[in-house]
Amino acid sequence: MNRLGMKTLLMKEIRRFVRIPGQTLLSPLISTSLYFVVFGSALSGRISQVEGVPYLAFIVPGLVFLSVANNAFINASSSIFSSKIQGTIVDLLVAPLGPFELIVGFAGGAVVRGILVGLLTWLVGIFFAGPSLQHALLTLGVLVLGAYTFALLGLLSGLWAEKFEQVNFFPTFVMLPLTFLGGVFYNVEQLPGIWRTVSLFNPVVYLVDGLRYGMLGVGMFQPWVAPTVLTALALVSTVIVHALLARGYKLTS
Amino acid sequence: MYGAMSPPVLSIEGLRKQYGNFTALHDVSLEIPAGEIFALLGPNGAGKSTLIGAICGMVRKTAGKVRLFGIDIDEDPVTPRYRVGLVPQEINFDPFFNPVECLEIQQGYYGQKPDPERIREVLEAMQLTSKANVVTRALSGGMRRRLLIAKALVHRPQLVFLDEPTAGVDVELRRDLWSYIRRLRAEGTTVVLTTHYLEEAEELADRVGIIDGGRLLLLEEKAALLERLGKRQTAVHFTEPQQSLPEALGELGVVLSEDGNSALYTEQATSNHGSGRVLGALYSAGLPIRDVETQRPRLEEILIEVLRSGGAANAQKQDVQA
């Protein structure tokens, strides 16, 4: 294994987003803060409590998850896509870096950005709703596994995309519906019968619920469900992305 | 130093690449010994970059074997890459990093810790020292090309592929680069070069391969090739235009230029006495000679001739050994 090569790619990915903090860190923070203001402040007057916690506190885990997932996804997809467009992907194809090293480098950088923006979002959440961390290990596990899984989905999207408009396909048509219908702003149990059943097929529901349990101590499912779902998703994504990178899918001709 | 007994650093057997019904490479076979400068020549779309891409991992070959340093890249694609460097034809640059950072990253990819001394050395060789800390976005096209060369060399590869390395690089710098390539060869580095500047191949190459339509039409040592297929042209310029030449000169194959100012004579490079005989005849005829100009054999003419005639003649012969 080329450990130094892997570390170099990872550090390069981190330096890349750190150099444009306005776009990579501040911008997502502002949009998440607006969610707190618009959804939280506006709805908390009508919905005082959900599952025994104040509404503003209830939406914090979901918004943290949203930040982590979005930023991990965008970082990985934009990085690999821009490498393809700029032609710098050649440097990686020719270098002694196998699929494993590429996954660790690209996904690692994306995980760091996702967690960083997630933590900043959490700080904003603490400002609006006060601090709460009931199960630190579970919270950390769900955040890291979630960031990794969405980083891999981002890699998949960036590998697949050949045009700029295709880069936005996954975030717009897959991630946005899944996250907004994943119980970020509401309790899925409160949905009418059929919609509740449909929601149970959305993996984001379990992830948000797991994080909510970790941070607030309340949740619909058993605490082991979210880490299990995430581990399964992470494993499947890893196998797929590894196979595609080994084949040079849309990287080699 | 280049030598026929050196073991091959690159060995290709029956390499084929197909894109649907289009065959970009037709069962190409080739061996390149250590320490050689090998020039791969051919027109646009001949298959030069596809061949390099298939060796370096940018193109998925359809069939055939490629061994780098004796390692089959199908069995182990990663290990040989530590010893390979590539200057791609297309200019690329990462706008987030300056040249020093780009070179540090490149060393890291190849499992090496940043080596400021080596980075300084390649930046100096590429005359980029003054731009070492400038964002790559601000570099000119020629500078970006030189940065690509620096990136390909910074990890001290033993085999370097230079795909049009001097396109867009000014004349003076190009000659400095040639010196640097000769130095690399002297240090034992093997160089595979594709270029549109045939003068570059003439200056540098030990051996030449001519490829067209995905077929390797010719593979021969440059000196032997120039000797075998090259033509030497002698132009004798007169002080005043001539209406015609004496019949004896015509029999020797000498022709008068259209403006009547020069007598032109072309002979095979292998000929040892043709020019002398012609000059003697011109002198004996009492023609008013002002100047004599001799043009040595050029790869350009050979390339044109091989592409024109050899392409069809060698259509069924995909592996031509000298």
Walk me through the structure.
The complex is a heterodimer of chains A (253) and B (322). Chain A has helices at residues 3-18, 21-44, 55-86, 89-94, 99-129, 136-160, 164-167, 169-180, 193-199, 203-216, 225-247, and strands at residues 49-50, 53-54. Chain A is 77% helix and 2% strand. Chain A is mostly helical and 253 residues long. In chain A, helix 1 runs parallel beside helix 5 (99-129) and helix 6 (136-160) packs antiparallel against helix 10. With 322 residues, chain B is α/β, with parallel strands linked by helices. Chain B has two domains: 8-227 and 302-313, Rossmann fold, CATH 3.40.50.300; 231-296, Alpha-Beta Plaits (2-Layer Sandwich). Helices cover 33% and strands 27% of the residues of chain B. In chain B, helix 2 (99-109) crosses helix 3 (116-125) and helix 2 runs parallel beside helix 4. The chains are: A mainly alpha (253), B alpha/beta (322). The A-B interface holds A 2-5, 7-9, 11-12, 15-16, 19-20, 86-88, 90-98, 247-248, 252-253 and B 19, 53, 56-60, 77-79, 81-82, 84, 86, 88, 90-97, 105-106, 108-113, 151.
SSE diagram, text form:
The complex is a heterodimer of chains A (253) and B (322).
Chain A: H1 3-18, H2 21-44, E1 49-50, E2 53-54, H3 55-86, H4 89-94, H5 99-129, H6 136-160, H7 164-167, H8 169-180, H9 193-199, H10 203-216, H11 225-247
Antiparallel strand pairs in A: 1-2
Helix pairs in contact in A: 1-5, 2-3, 2-5, 3-5, 3-6, 3-10, 5-6, 5-11, 6-10, 6-11, 10-11
Chain B: E1 8-19, E2 22-33, E3 37-41, H1 48-56, E4 63-68, E5 71-72, E6 84-87, H2 99-109, H3 116-125, H4 141-153, E7 159-163, H5 171-186, E8 190-194, H6 198-204, E9 207-212, E10 215-221, H7 222-229, E11 231-238, H8 247-251, E12 255-256, E13 262-268, H9 274-284, E14 289-295, H10 299-313
Care to count the β-strands of chain A? 2
DSSP, total strands of chain B: 14
CATH class of the largest domain in chain B: Alpha Beta
Domains counted in the coordinates of chain A: how many?
1
Radius of gyration of chain A: 18 Å
Distance between the amino and carboxyl termini of chain B: 20 Å
Q: Give the overall average pLDDT of chain A.
A: 90
Average pLDDT confidence of chain B is 86
What structural class do helix, strand and pairing data of chain A support? Answer: mainly alpha
Runs of chain A in which pLDDT lies below 50 for 5 or more consecutive residues are: none
* Separate helix tally of chain B: 10
CATH topology grouping of the largest domain in chain B: Rossmann fold
* Protein chains sharing the most extensive interface: A-B, 29 and 32 residues
